[in-house]
Amino acid sequence: MIVIMTPGIGAASAEVEEVVRQAHTYKDIRTDVHEIVGTTRTLTEIYLLGPTATVPTDGFAALPGVERVVRVSERYKVIGRHRGQVEVMGFDYRGITFSQDTFHVFPGLCAVDTPQHVDQMFAAIAEHGLRTSRMGAYKPRTSPYDFQGHGKDCLPYVFELAGKHGVQVVAMEITTARHLDEVRSALRASGEATGVMLQIGTRNAQNFELLKYVGQQQRFPVLFKRGMGITLEESINACEYIASEGNRQIAFCLRGVKSHLGDPHRNLVDFAHVPVVKRLTRMPVCVDPSHSVGGRVEASDGLMDIFHVTAQGIIAGANMVLVDFHPAPAKALCDGPQALTLDELHGFLEDTAIAREAYEKRVARVRASAARAA
Ligand code: PEP
Ligand code: MN
């Protein structure tokens, strides 16, 4: 059950305190108070957790400061979009807003190799007015003999160079709790030159201890990549693990699923799930065209498949694009064949802008037609 307060009633108010007090009069009911930052307003929600089926809603609905009470299904209690709950679950990080209404592109290196390449990448990003990027330091690889990433050794120059070019958010995968400690101390040593969005890779989508660990801190937002061989429901439940530990700053990333039905692409592109995730949850949704397609193949119209699937994700409402670039793909130590070059960044961003504009027009059209019908 969620008790939603009227806008303006803060988490520390007497009204919220009274709701919590009454909730605790029911046996085994725990509460969790959370402030939701929406695009239009901020409001406080109180989650009643435990055996709520027999707790009546009326008493809470009548309390001062309560806007409404929503009975939620057992599924996705925190991140879900329950009936009557319209607020998106956005978050602000390093001056940038991430929500189901915003749009950001994260171009960058799949795997950090040299300081020169990181510098060139960030310089290109800054030149195009972007403040978000991706950089892989810890690479989970299929073979133990493949390059595993430079790990903590590269963090000092990655963060310093991000700061130099004004890059505010670097999406970076971590595969174990120790990596989070390394990221934290390298950021501190850099004078907090930038911010990190912690990527949970597809291979760790059900690493519940790691999910809980990133959920127990609220300093870094999390970019969760859907599990490549599990259902969408299982992936969304994995995000609920993060949220239920206290961290609601989560973006959900589609990156294709493992199936030979996707051949000749690396994975079966699953961007038809963008509106599905936006309907079932309140998280911003990201697409990763690079790991979905896996190569620089081009269609007969002259557009690469990576461009096509990116546009498909955006036109369906994606809020973020995570995409592999490299100044010299032939020299990349991981996933070179799917990297776009820095010369292609301008065209890629133009293409994303066209798709985003088309999405906004589609939404405006359906809203206008709904307004006429009302
Ligand atoms: C990545 O983004 O570098 C990556 C390894 O992605 P995924 O976990 O989706 O395979
Ligand atoms: Mn990769």
In short:
The chain is of the alpha/beta class and 374 residues long. 33% of the residues lie in helices and 18% in strands.
Comma- or semicolon-separated keywords:
374 residues; 11 helices; single chain; 2 domains; TIM Barrel; eight-stranded parallel beta barrel; binds phosphoenolpyruvate; binds manganese (II) ion; four-stranded antiparallel sheet; globular; alpha/beta
Report on the structure:
This protein is an alpha/beta fold and 374 residues long. It folds into 2 domains: 69 residues, Alpha-Beta Plaits (2-Layer Sandwich); 267 residues, Aldolase class I (TIM Barrel, Alpha-Beta Barrel), CATH 3.20.20. The strands form 3 sheets. An 8-stranded parallel barrel has the order 7-8-9-10-11-12-13-14, surrounded by 7 helices. A hairpin with a 2-residue loop joins strand 5 and strand 6. Helix 3 runs parallel beside helix 4, helix 6 packs across helix 7 and helix 10 packs parallel to helix 11. The longest helix has 29 residues. The structure holds phosphoenolpyruvate (PEP) and manganese (II) ion (MN). Phosphoenolpyruvate binds next to loops.
Would you spell out the secondary-structure blueprint of this structure?
Blueprint: E1 2-5, H1 14-23, E2 30-37, E3 42-49, H2 58-61, E4 66-70, E5 91-93, E6 96-98, E7 104-109, H3 115-127, E8 132-135, H4 155-164, E9 169-173, H5 177-189, E10 195-200, H6 208-215, E11 222-225, H7 232-244, E12 250-254, H8 274-280, E13 285-287, H9 289-293, H10 305-315, E14 320-324, H11 345-373
Parallel strand pairs: 7-8, 7-14, 8-9, 9-10, 10-11, 11-12, 12-13, 13-14
Antiparallel strand pairs: 1-3, 1-4, 2-3, 5-6
Helix pairs in contact: 3-4, 6-7, 10-11
The protein binds phosphoenolpyruvate and manganese (II) ion (MN).
Residues 110, 291, 334-335 line the site of manganese (II) ion.
